[in-house]
Write a structure and sequence with these properties.
5 helices, 6 strands, about 200 residues, six-stranded mixed sheet, globular
């Protein structure tokens, strides 16, 4: 189960796509249940090619998606999962040129391969998922700073004891900006919950 806070717009064109690369004016919340195939190799993400359907026996597959109507519903669900799984949360912030599914599958792979003892949370900002979309992505990362800060504050209000963050590429810049904003307000380490 991957919990998601995203500044992406909900997809409407492709029924297999949950969120697309367009920016939303508000943060959306969801949970995506992903299966990992028995043939999985550590470090790899076995995926279907092109527009082919995933085969759960051979590829990572999104088996179920739950949408939460608002932040309080999401906070309740993710808080319950954190309490059940060991009072830790792993927040992954993807990088430039990443689709929504890229972030979901990468966090699934990280949590699975490291046997992470907590709740995985993807913060997915509106990347265009195109190599030519660098400027769009940079602007999207800029626009997502407050949303990531709010997500981290939300997690800190649960029973979580440690919030661990992994950020990649442009997601690192976004993460540092959100952490900088927290520090400016005097909440540098989220009340001692920011993992080191």
């Amino acid at each position: 189960e991957i919990f998601v806070a995203t500044t992406r717009r909900q997809a409407t064109k492709d029924p297999r796509q949950v969120f697309d690369g367009d920016r939303s004016l508000t943060t959306s919340y969801a949970r995506v249940d992903v299966t990992v195939p028995k043939v999985h190799q550590v470090g790899a993400i076995e995926r279907a090619k092109g527009s082919a359907n995933s085969n759960p026996a051979k590829q990572f597959t999104a088996a179920n998606v739950v949408h939460y109507g608002d932040a309080p519903q999401f906070a309740k669900a993710v808080g319950a999962d954190i309490a059940m799984r060991g009072d830790r949360a792993l927040v992954f912030v993807h990088g430039f040129n990443n689709g929504f599914d890229d972030g979901i599958y990468r966090l699934t792979q990280i949590a699975h391969d490291t046997k992470y003892p907590g709740t995985p949370v993807l913060f997915s900002w509106a990347s265009s998922a195109k190599t030519t979309g660098y400027i769009y992505d940079k602007d999207s990362a800029n626009a997502a700073r407050d949303d990531l800060e709010a997500t981290l504050r939300m997690l800190a209000k649960t029973r979580v004891k440690s919030i661990d963050i992994i950020a990649h590429s442009m997601g690192t810049w976004l993460t540092m900006e959100a952490l900088r904003q927290l520090a400016i307000t005097g909440v540098r380490d989220l009340g001692g919950k920011l993992g080191y």
